[in-house]
Design goal:
The complex is a heterodimer of chains A (about 120) and B (about 325). Chain A has about 120 residues and is α+β, with helices and mostly antiparallel strands. Chain A has helices spanning about 65-70, 80-90, 100-115, and strands at about 30, 40-45, 50-55, 60-65, 80, 120. Chain B is of the alpha+beta class. Classes of the chains: A alpha+beta (about 120), B alpha+beta (about 325).
Chain lengths: ~120, ~325
Amino acid sequence: MIAPRSASGARPGGRRQRSGAGSTARTSPRWWCPQADELHIRQWDDDAAVVFDDSTGHTHLVDALAAQVLRSLQHGEAVSTPQLAAAVTDAVHPDHRAALASALHGSVGALQSLGLLRCRDE
Amino acid sequence: MTAAALGESARPARAAAGAATAPRSPERVADLSPRQMAARLESGQLLLRTGPFTLRLRSPLPQVAAGIARTYAAFPLAPLHGFADFHVAVLPDAGLRNWWRPQARFWLDGKASMPLAARQAFAMLEWGLNWCVASHAHQFLVIHAAVVERHGRALLLPAPSGAGKSTLCAALVQRGWRLLSDELALLDIASGQLLGMARPVNLKNDSIELIRRFAPEAAFSASVPDTIKGTVALMRAPDDAVRRMHEPAAPAWIVLPRWQPGAAARLQPQGAAQAFMLLAGQGFNYGVHGRNGFEALGRLIDRCTCLQFSYDTLDDALACLDQLAPGTAGGR
């Protein structure tokens, strides 16, 4: 089944929580891929990739940065946004690294809307 | 139904010095007389080979016999008692509809389609056969695409209906490219090769006259107006394509065609991932194959150059595509 093309612009998750001491400090989201070992990625050039999800049978078209995000999460562990950015930096052309934060925000949102990425607050 | 009517010898002729030998069993559709053709078709004993499939056909309708005689003349007959992949029939509706605005239906293995006007019966047979392959031939990855070949290398033209791929395909096969199919690319998942059927090319509306003028020597079925696709006609495949229908071809180019009035014919690079998604979207049974389909399509993309193609006139289009695989002198 071909899933709809990835949407963009979805905001990464993050909920306010109250600690036991009554503080309202914002928690840091951690990202993980629930189907990490069931995704198969093919990429032929720098622009886009296709991802097959064994768990659903869906095939997705994602941009190159989103593909790199998925690859960096295939170990199955949740990572913070800075850790995720560090993991994908090497895959980003140096000329584009200044805009990495906003590009990563978009890719993470797209992957969330496809159900390939989830946010876990800690 | 006598053996003579079916076109087979009732008993071997006695050989004598200087006497003629026993008549040869018909090998092709063209070897059958009109009476023999009608008899076999009416009794469900017309078996044809079309590439990897054997079809058993049945119909009492003269327009179906005429269409087969006209566009399947070069196709090999299969043994009367042999295996057939698809047992199909185009039968008139009974009762009032046999007389008033007669209708017919396509049947596969005892199940019938919705009725259409009986004058569309031959077109219905072709559409029905396409449906049979697209819905059941899961030994292949079946993609909605035209496929032509030259020098052993295949050019895929995937596109939704109405994009002009059949028109382009019809022109290409009249100018030195071999027809595998105008509608259904059959990808052998194990070998990665493309197989063909060399069945007639479906044309509609203005494309019919366009190709008649482009290739005056081409043979067509009768045009049928007022179908769901407009006026349709089927162009007979060149005999060479039918003779070579069992030859697979290695995929080399995936070309996404777009007819654009006034545009100069131009090939431009197409992103591979986008081409993959288009092929998967045009895959009739991509979902059936799951991961195997994903990997097979990935290997297909690995082997191919992916291109966008815009064009206006057929002459310009063919001159541009010829650059991919230059033909021999004379275009053949």
